Amino acid sequence: MRRLKARELQQFAAQHPTSRALHERAHSSMVGGVPMPWMARWPGGFPVYVKRATGSRIVDVDEHAYVDLCLGDTGAMSGHSPPAVVRAVQARIAQGSTMMLPVEDGIWAAEELARRFRVGHWQFTLSATDANRCALRVARQITGRSKILVYSYCYHGTVDEALAVRDPSGATRSRAGNVGPPIDPAQTTRAIEFNDVRQLERALADQSIACVLAEPAMTNMGIVLPAPGYHDALRALTRSYGTLLVIDETHTFSAGPGGCTALWGLEPDMVTIGKCIGGGIASGAIGMSTDVVQRLAQQRDADFEDTGGVGGTLAGNALSAAAMRATLEHVLTADAFAHMIALASQLRESIERLIATRRLAWNVTQLGCRVEYSFQPQPALNGTAAHEGVDRELESYLHLYLLNRGVLITPFHNMVLMSPASTAADVALHDRLFTAAIDELLAPEHAS
Question: What is the rounded average pLDDT for all residues in the chain?
Answer without folding.
Answer: 96
